[in-house]
Design brief:
nucleotide-binding; 2 domains; two-stranded antiparallel ribbon; ChlI/MoxR_AAA_lid; CbbQ/NirQ/NorQ/GpvN; Rossmann fold; five-stranded parallel β-sheet; Helicase, Ruva Protein, domain 3; 11 strands; ATP-binding; 14 helices; P-loop_NTPase
Length: 336
């Protein structure tokens, strides 16, 4: 980093200010990225709460580029794995390799030993290979031949998948989906955004992640995490979270609703959302904004709902309508 950037990172490290951290990273990414501000904000939510992200979108909407830009701006060590049916678990975690010149086995670490791991088209890998990510995502460690090795900190998995090409793919099982804190859908851009993309890359066809520089450091990220942990969540807001998750379990279109892990994901993510917005307390609107990306991929709809083409986001819209937030009709929890 430059001297000026180092000074900025140092100031933010002392402050532990999630809002300043997000604004700095977002501004740097926008030099290449056009639109997708909400996705950047939710990547920050995941980073500040030790969460993993599932990105879904059709080819060409910059899913992998988004992750790469985020890694560049944060200075995180980045690795990318192109998932295919023939990739093996050892290709993810690593293995011991015999070195003839020394006569010994040497550990060759896999791409999972990085701060930010992008599993591109994760649903193209076999279930056995997909499960190789389970331990690393949950335990933040990897076991190779009986030896448990810690992964670097921070550690975050961003997996992408294409919703329109299902032939030859393996849908993520519920246990795997539940380990992703948020699922983000990257939609096709509006015409004016796409025009900005065309103009920007017409002026500079080689524009890419290498044009992004590191603007924060590891210490500032860890300090911001501490700030997020200290965000206050009032008891009525906690009850609101519990009510939403409980309602997801009894909705007539749902076979299996959110688990306690979903409750914790909603709680922690709402704290990060509040901190990024510059508040030291959570309001119901933080919970509402995050209900869909946290719950949608966790809901298992019943057969009748599947046959009726009911979408998870429709169910979540019902939950938000049916469950009354605290302070409804008052100014107690209104947006600032």
């Amino acid at each position: 980093m430059s001297r000026e950037e180092t000074s900025i990172a140092g100031d933010r490290r002392e402050e532990g200010d999630p809002r300043a951290l997000y604004e700095t990273i977002s501004a740097e990414m926008q030099q290449v990225l056009v639109g997708n501000e909400q996705a950047v904000e939710r990547l920050m939510v995941g980073l500040l709460t030790r969460g993993h992200i599932l990105l879904e979108g059709v080819p060409g909407v910059a899913k992998t580029t988004l992750a790469n830009l985020f890694a560049q701006a944060t200075g995180l060590n980045y690795s990318r794995v192109q998932m295919t049916p023939d990739i093996l678990p050892a290709d993810i975690t690593g293995t011991y390799v015999y070195r003839e010149h020394t006569g010994e086995f040497e550990l060759q670490r896999g791409p999972v030993f990085a701060n930010l791991v992008v599993a591109d088209e994760i649903n193209r890998a076999t279930p056995k290979t997909q499960s190789a990510l389970l331990e690393s995502m949950q335990e933040r460690s990897v076991t190779i031949r009986g030896e448990t090795l810690s992964l670097p900190e921070p550690f975050m998995v961003i997996a992408t998948q294409n919703p329109i090409e299902m032939e030859g793919t393996f849908e993520l099982p519920e246990a795997q989906r539940d380990r992703f804190q948020l699922k983000l859908t990257i939609d096709l851009p509006e015409r004016d955004i796409e025009r900005q993309i065309a103009d920007r890359f017409d002026d500079n066809p080689q524009l890419g992640p290498d044009d992004i520089t590191q603007v924060v450091d590891r210490e500032s990220i860890l300090a911001a995490r501490d700030t997020v942990q200290a965000v206050h969540v009032a008891s009525p807001v906690v009850d609101y979270i519990l009510d939403l998750v409980a309602e997801s379990r009894t909705h007539p279109d749902v076979s299996h609703g959110g688990s306690p892990r979903a409750t914790l994901a909603l709680l922690n993510s709402a704290k990060a959302q509040a901190a990024i917005r510059g508040r030291a307390y959570v309001i119901p609107d933080d919970v509402k904004l995050l209900a869909e990306p946290i719950l949608a991929h966790r809901l298992v709809l019943n057969t009748e709902a599947d046959l009726g083409n009911v979408a998870p986001d429709e169910v979540i819209a019902d939950l938000l309508e049916d469950v009354e937030p605290p302070g409804a009709g008052t100014d107690e929890f209104s947006l600032e």
